[in-house]
């Protein structure tokens, strides 16, 4: 029987609540089918550790993670620590050294969940956003001089490399090819940003030649928000830069009903290096400790993790259970307009997995 080494990093706030729920469901699934076991190690990395030691994770932490098959992550961010310290001190400190360059964000309107879009009942909105996850606007280049003086200057430099753009473009075209509609939209802002974004357009056109079976088009990011809202059915796979896709995928999550259901995978396609799976949302201090965090995003990302590990049957079973649970509106948490708790939703998942409902 296969055994997978999972690094669980719940992080801060509701991260702990949803990761615990996710692990419970994963364990139930493994026990039911007996196809695989999970050998989970728990890491206390996050803001509490920062308060104690001055670091969110130990030095060499990302190296330690290389020994695992996958990383199951919650969220990072605390009210008393600046957000750029927590993000760069943990999440990006894992994604960047492990070169998880493709951030994959599926969006669907799950059964029972209402889209805020009037004409969308479900099938009209079925997207996967591929976010460049290693460079672009979040490459980490920049600086500040003359801090606090009237002449203070700050730069935030976007980096686009041909190698970086080409690999994300190939990843997106492959993904588009694997989906029934074989349709890719490449998002840029190449009218105003005339260097990096023009390179992005040129590389897209070059890579497209290797994918004659994929239909593709280009959108400027501002117009893309309009198309997502007014013509969601015209989109399928979407590729965009680190910043653009960060914003578009939050919009996508909202259009599909809630940020509490949106999953993501930070993928390094090299199987020897672990990829990282997490809900899109953050640590949500406003609801931390109340027991009402929606765990659906974490269940969905757990399904993506199983799929990545090659456990397709278990991944599909988990997604099936998710759809059974969301279809029952009495199991909706407050973010979806309901009154259910994290515990209640998790129990319903466990029941669906064991076939008890
Ligand atoms: P957030 O995603 O934590 O919360 C935004 C809103 O959505 C809040 O009203 C929250 O209650 C709600 N929400 C989020 N997840 C939910 C869930 N599972 N169930 C029900 N409601 C949910 O974003 P916010 O407030 O901008 O950031 C809070 C902290 O999280 C900050 O420190 C931020 O830097 C961090 N953050 C971390 C991320 C990560 O670790 N990947 C991603 C986004 C934010
Ligand atoms: Mg975001």
Structure description:
- This protein is of the alpha/beta class.
- The chain folds into 2 domains: 1-103 and 259-357, Isopropylmalate Dehydrogenase; 115-256, Isopropylmalate Dehydrogenase.
- It contains 11 helices and 12 strands.
- The strands form 2 sheets. A 10-stranded mixed β-sheet has the order 2-1-3-12-11-4-5-10-8-9, with helices on both faces.
- Helix 1 links the parallel strand 1 (2-11) and strand 2 (36-42).
- Helix 1 packs parallel to helix 11 (342-354) and helix 5 packs across helix 6 (196-208).
- The longest helix is centred in the first third of the chain and has 20 residues, at 14-33.
- It is globular.
- The protein starts with a strand and ends with a helix.
- The structure holds 1,4-dihydronicotinamide adenine dinucleotide and magnesium ion (MG).
- 1,4-dihydronicotinamide adenine dinucleotide binds next to helix 1 and helix 4.
| Beta-strand share of residues | 15-25%
Secondary-structure element string: EHEHHEHEEEEHEHEHEHEEHHH
List unreliable stretches of 5+ residues: none
Would you tell me the overall average pLDDT?
A: 96
Structure class: alpha/beta
